[in-house]
Amino acid sequence: MLGKGLLKGMRVTFKTFFHKKETLQYPEEKLTMPARFRGGELDLNTEKCIACGLCKMACPNHVIEITTAMDDAKKRHLKSYVYHSGLCLYCNFCVEACPTKAISWDKNYENSRYFRDELDVDCLAIAKQKLTKTISADDKASGEKDNTLKGGILDE
Ligand code: SF4
Ligand code: SF4
Predict the structure, then answer these.
(1) Which of 2, 119, 139, 155 could form a disulfide with 86 if both were Cys (CB 3.0 to 4.6 A apart)?
(2) Count of other CB atoms within 10 angstroms of residue 80
(3) Where are the beta strands (DSSP E) in 1-149?
C-alpha cells in the first residue's frame, strides 16, 4: 500500500516524541551515580573514625596520609587526614579495610582540576565544616547553642 512506510516512520516519531526523555541537560542536570560507583573523593565521617590507620595501611599507592594524637584518656584521635586523589587507583581497598565504615565515596564525577596540588583533599577539614554546619542547623532547630564539637576530632 502506498504510504505504508511513511506511516510506520511517523509511528516511531510520535512514540519517541511522547516518550520519557533519556538525555540529561548537563551541566544543569546531573546523573545520580549507583550505590557501587567508586569515584570522586573520599568522604570521611569523623564520628565513626577511630583513627586506627587501617585505610592508610591497605592503600597500595600511599594515597592516604594520616597523623594521629592521643588524648589524656589515651584515646587516639585524628590530627590530619589527607587524600591525594591524583594517585588513587579507585581499588576500594581503603573503604573495605575500614572497620567502622567511616569512609565512603562522595560519588562526584566532576573532579577535573586546573592545578595538580588541588587534587590533594583535606578530608578532615571538609568533615569538620560539614559537622559545624550540621550542629548549627541543629542549634537553629532546637533554639539552643552547644559549643562542644562532636565526632572523633581532637581540637587544637
Ligand atoms: S581506592 Fe585504593 S588507591 Fe585509592 S585511596 Fe583507597 S586504597 Fe588507595
Ligand atoms: S577511616 Fe576507618 S580505617 Fe581509616 S583511620 Fe578511620 S576508622 Fe581507621
Answers:
(1) 119
(2) 13
(3) 42-44, 64-70, 76-84, 103-105, 120-122
52 grid coordinates: 586506627
Judge whether 147 lies within some domain.
no
DSSP state of 51: -
For residue 41, give the nearest of 112, 101, 100, 98 by alpha carbon: 112
Inside any domain, residue 132: yes
pLDDT at 37 over 60: yes
CB atoms within 10 A of CB 81: 27
Whether residue 23 lies inside any domain: the answer is no
Mean pLDDT value of segment 6-27: 89
How is residue 63 written as a grid cell? 594515597
Quote the pTM value.
Answer: 0.78
Q: Please give the residue range of the domain that contains residue 78.
A: 38-141
- For 47, residues 6+ apart whose C-beta sits below 8 A from its C-beta are 131, 150, 151, 152
Ligand 1 centroid vs 137 CA: distance in angstroms? 33
Side chain identity, residue 104: S
Q: What is the CATH number of the domain that holds 57?
A: 3.30.70.3270
Region 35-54: what's the mean pLDDT? Answer: 93
